[in-house]
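Hey, quick one: can you model this chain's 3D structure?
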Amino acid sequence: MVWIPGLGAVNALLPTFGRCAEHTTCHLLDLPGFTTPGSRARVPPLVGTLAETVANWLTHVPDGPVVLAGHSTGAQVALRAAARAPGRVSALVLLGLTFPSHLRHTGPLLRAATRTAVREPAGLLGAVVPDYFRAGPLRLIRYLKSALGDRPEETLPGLGCPVLLAAGAHDPLAPPDWIEHAARQTPSGRAVTLPGAHGFPYSHPESTAALVLGATVS
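Sure thing. Here's the predicted structure for all 218 residues.
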């Protein structure tokens, strides 16, 4: 199982990742571009370039094909990578896939992010801030702009593997109706709603891990 975090926030996935790693081999990718502020990144943190990096990496994983899982903007990267390397992905898991069309503008996105933030556990902030700090605001803004320009609904219909999409029940950034719509765009996708807001892999790791592990035997 291969995991891709959103906005480079590796720590936000650790609770669910740890539970999955108790049952299967797991890799959590700390993707290039989210480096110490001030250093030069060889690969810019953009959805397209990161997807190409992941797809190339998957061709060298000895224990493939894999279950590829991504959260938030990491789900966008995972989706694009699966489309680039279809023979290396046995199942795709998209957790909190961003962004529905009405949030692909700065104002609505900021309002949704604010509503999401007040619904998250306090510990999530402490988990993501170190990752955001090492990336720096300029890289995060550039990456976010590329995510806002992405159109997941255009990639989903071409997938050949099973696709599982999950939404947090109280997530304004990737609401359940958007996740259900996205699932309908896939040839063999299904949508599930879990407790929590956008950070449900952090706040509800047991239910998230159980769901994702189910994809390994689907």
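One thing worth noting: Strands lie at 2-4, 27-28, 66-71, 89-95, 163-168, 189-194.
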